[in-house]
Design goal:
With 195 residues, the chain is α+β, with helices and mostly antiparallel strands. The chain has 4 helices and 8 strands.
């Protein structure tokens, strides 16, 4: 899928994008469709996560990654090809999990569809995005509370323990992190045969 472009990741302050001329911070994810996405985003707000409104509900395929503006066309071509080589699959979200004590995150678990997420992540994090290293092993999930006090994380873990939702994955979305700290979807790449 083409040569790898230089991709870097610099530390960012929580929720704020570091603006570098000629560079965008992007992410690639599976968007969680309605009604599940807004419902989980509402839960994240109720838990007091200040980033709840800034981050659409998603399953990450490529974490925040800096890409030169000049390389964005190659990145979009790569994502288009990755989507074209994929097919729809189902995801079943059920119950909660946590990365504590390693990371103060509570999430809704991907109970079914893990293999489909892993295949997509591998396709996305190749070619021009192939140099993007991960801090942790890839583990598909939907974050509902992040960097909050322990009692709030415990509350999130308990309140969503019975959460259950199913949906079909029909494409991947490219997000850009704005200077205002908001992640915005800029392009969706649909799988062949998806409606």
């Amino acid at each position: 899928m083409g040569a790898a472009l230089p991709v870097t990741r610099r530390p960012r302050s929580r929720g704020r994008s570091v603006t570098v001329p000629g560079v965008q911070t992007i992410g690639v994810a599976i968007a969680i469709p309605e009604p599940h996405g807004p419902e989980l985003q509402s839960w994240r707000e109720r838990f007091g996560d200040p980033l709840a409104r800034m981050i659409p509900t998603h399953v990450t395929l490529l974490p925040p990654t800096e890409v030169a503006d000049a390389d964005m066309a190659a990145v979009e071509d790569h994502l288009r090809a990755a989507a074209a080589a994929s097919e729809p699959f189902g995801i079943h979200l059920r119950g909660t999990g946590t990365f504590r004590p390693l990371s103060d995150v509570v999430f809704v678990t991907v109970a079914e569809g893990i293999a489909g997420c892993e295949l997509l992540e591998e396709k996305v994090r190749s070619g021009p995005l192939g140099h993007r290293e991960l801090e942790f092993a890839y583990h598909p999930h939907v974050t509902v509370a992040h960097d909050l006090p322990q009692h709030v994380l415990d509350d999130a873990f308990e309140k969503l323990a019975d959460y259950d939702a199913r949906f079909s994955v029909t494409g991947i979305s490219l997000y850009v992190h704005g200077p205002d700290g908001y992640w915005r979807p800029v392009r969706e790449f649909r799988f062949p045969g998806s409606v």
